[in-house]
């Protein structure tokens, strides 16, 4: 702001000076006067010839318009345009500002033998182009030059940085988009209904940022747990890494990868969960942790065995399943994670969720809460419909408030 | 969220969510860098904590334990207590009634 004011001041002073000297040029121009002609040097480029007809009668011959009147003020030649203002600015010269924007100059001059005549010269518009340009110059100086200087500085110092920053930003955005796609590929069939072994499973992971710290997985496999032959099983899990974004997503990937790999091999839950816990504890400089629920459903007997590591209780047929408190993974490497077991039946509905659902906040700062979640579950619907109903309820509740956490749902219709 | 420090006590007032967690992290780091061995976390005005908040409380606890000090939580509100219970944090944190 201050440089702008200084520039304006300087530009005004310079232009005033030029403008005034230009005006003075007019009054100091000398007319060559002879008995039969007058030559006016109005400007460096312009010469107007005038001929004396007789005595104090003069006719301008090469001007765009000119009038000579005698000392009494009577017009000799042509029509004088109606003038609107007259301004005496020195003894010998009078300027009239005409209504059409032109000026009319009058000069005292001696033409024939002591006869004093005023010569009125009608100056065409182009003569005044220069002052007009000066006026434009002032205007431009006050606004344009600071802009030019700013653009110069911008191009020299800021633009390269900005360009670099934009390129980096673009690269980062692309990488995050790829990370997002990779993550969505890690969780099985997000947003796609899966029917297998008489079950319907529908999972959905909706990150708050580009990548999420939430995870879910399900694996159909077989194992020998407590039996003499291979029994079909469905392993599934849901988890939520503390924090959000890229750091959380890396931990999510470790957890998800370990679970998927060990479950596919038919490992026992009591081995899988401590193994993930050990891995997270060992590579965890920032003390992040992961709430985790892992389960294994026997597809013949419908016995559900599970381990909960500090995750929200799962909902069985519209009722939260009471669970023992236990620490999330990644905190204590020696922590035991006891295995629990319940009997479920064909037709039962399991809903697993992360706290991004129950802790979704509306514009009034209220939480969606477990009660609203439970009442949004209609067990008569299919797995995908139940999930979408819950999501719709959360979205409607949230209103215009932003999604503040990753949201994950896994619905299993047994 | 409003965070105040008085001697060795940190007062958390409001919601410890992702937007205020960073401020709390800074305060926690400052406390750990300081001389104080025993630190009290006053949560009587805190209605909610996100998992980020839990992580910072946990790292504060670990940091103080490494200095042979002790972190005590005071005035834990029911909603926050519920989260501590569900995540098993109640078993590793020192919570005053």
What does this structure look like?
The complex is a heterodimer of chains A (414) and B (97). Chain A has seven helices and 20 strands. With 414 residues, chain A is of the alpha+beta class. In chain A, the strands form four sheets. Chain A has a six-stranded antiparallel sheet with strand order 10-11-20-19-16-17. A five-stranded antiparallel sheet of chain A has the order 5-9-8-7-6, with no helix packed on it. In chain A, strands 12-13-14-15-18 form a five-stranded antiparallel sheet, with helices on one face. The radius of gyration of chain A is 46 Å and the shape is elongated. The model of chain B has no long low-confidence stretch (mean pLDDT 87). Chain B has 97 residues and is an alpha/beta fold. Chain B is globular. In chain B, helix 1 packs parallel to helix 2. The interface between A and B is medium-sized, with 26 and 20 residues.
List its salient traits.
heterodimer, A: alpha+beta, six-stranded antiparallel beta sheet, five-stranded antiparallel beta sheet, 20 strands, 35% helix, B: 97 residues, alpha/beta, five-stranded mixed beta sheet, 42% helix
List the helices and strands and how they pair.
The complex is a heterodimer of chains A (414) and B (97).
Chain A: H1 2-28, E1 32-33, E2 37-41, E3 47-54, E4 57-60, E5 66-69, E6 83-90, E7 93-98, E8 103-110, E9 116-123, H2 129-186, E10 193-196, E11 199-206, E12 214-223, E13 231-241, H3 245-264, H4 269-282, E14 290-298, E15 303-309, E16 315-316, E17 319-320, E18 340-343, E19 349-353, H5 355-358, H6 369-375, H7 383-398, E20 407-413
Antiparallel strand pairs in A: 1-2, 2-3, 3-4, 5-9, 6-7, 7-8, 8-9, 10-11, 11-20, 12-13, 13-14, 14-15, 15-18, 16-17, 16-19, 19-20
Helix pairs in contact in A: 1-2, 3-4
Chain B: E1 2-6, E2 9-16, H1 18-33, E3 38-49, H2 51-66, E4 70-74, H3 78-86, E5 94-95
Parallel strand pairs in B: 2-3, 3-4, 4-5
Antiparallel strand pairs in B: 1-2
Helix pairs in contact in B: 1-2
């Amino acid at each position: 702001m201050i440089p702008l004011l200084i520039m304006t001041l300087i530009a005004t002073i310079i232009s005033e000076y030029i403008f005034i000297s230009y005006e003075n040029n007019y009054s100091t121009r000398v007319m060559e006067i002879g008995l039969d002609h007058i030559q006016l040097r109005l400007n460096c480029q312009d010469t107007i010839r005038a001929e004396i007809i007789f005595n104090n009668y003069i006719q301008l011959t090469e001007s765009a318009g000119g009038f000579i009147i005698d000392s009494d003020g009577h017009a000799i030649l042509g029509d004088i345009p109606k003038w609107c203002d007259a301004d005496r600015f020195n003894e010998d010269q009078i300027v009239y500002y005409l209504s059409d924007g032109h000026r009319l100059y009058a000069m005292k001059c001696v033409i024939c033998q002591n006869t004093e005549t005023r010569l009125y010269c009608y100056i065409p518009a182009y003569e005044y182009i220069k002052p007009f340009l000066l006026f434009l110059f002032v205007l431009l100086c006050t606004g344009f030059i600071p802009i030019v200087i700013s653009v110069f500085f911008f191009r020299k110092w800021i633009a390269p940085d900005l360009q670099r920053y934009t390129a980096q930003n673009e690269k980062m955005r692309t990488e995050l988009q790829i990370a997002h796609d990779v993550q969505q590929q890690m969780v099985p069939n997000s947003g796609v209904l899966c029917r297998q072994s008489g079950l319907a499973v529908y999972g959905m992971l909706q990150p708050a940022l580009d990548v999420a710290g939430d995870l879910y997985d399900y694996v159909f496999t077989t194992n020998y747990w407590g039996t003499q032959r291979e029994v079909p099983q469905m392993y599934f899990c849901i988890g939520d890494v503390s924090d959000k974004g890229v750091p959380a997503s890396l931990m999510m990937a470790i957890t998800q990868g370990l679970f998927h790999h060990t479950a596919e091999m038919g490992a026992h839950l009591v081995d899988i969960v401590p193994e993930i816990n050990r891995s997270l504890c060992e590579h965890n400089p920032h003390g992040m942790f992961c709430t985790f629920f892992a389960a294994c459903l026997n597809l013949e007997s419908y016995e559900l065995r599970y381990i909960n590591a500090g995750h929200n209780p799962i909902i069985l047929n519209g009722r939260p399943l009471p669970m023992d408190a236990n620490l999330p993974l990644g905190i204590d490497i020696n922590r035991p994670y006891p295995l629990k077991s319940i009997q479920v039946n064909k037709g039962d509905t399991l809903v697993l969720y992360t706290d991004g659902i129950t802790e979704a906040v509306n514009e009034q700062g209220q939480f969606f809460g477990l009660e609203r979640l439970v009442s949004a579950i209609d067990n008569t619907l299919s797995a995908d419909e139940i999930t979408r109903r819950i999501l719709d309820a959360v979205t409607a509740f949230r209103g215009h408030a932003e999604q503040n956490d990753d949201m994950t749902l896994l619905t299993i219709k047994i | 969220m409003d965070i105040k420090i008085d001697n060795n006590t940190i007062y958390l007032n409001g919601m410890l969510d992702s937007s205020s967690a960073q401020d709390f992290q800074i305060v926690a780091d400052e406390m750990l860098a300081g001389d104080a061995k025993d630190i009290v976390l006053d949560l009587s005005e805190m209605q909610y904590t996100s998992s980020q908040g839990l992580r910072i409380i946990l790292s504060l606890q670990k940091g103080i334990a490494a200095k042979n000090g002790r972190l005590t939580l005071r005035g834990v509100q029911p909603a926050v207590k519920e989260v501590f219970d569900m995540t098993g944090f109640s078993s590793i944190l020192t919570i005053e009634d």
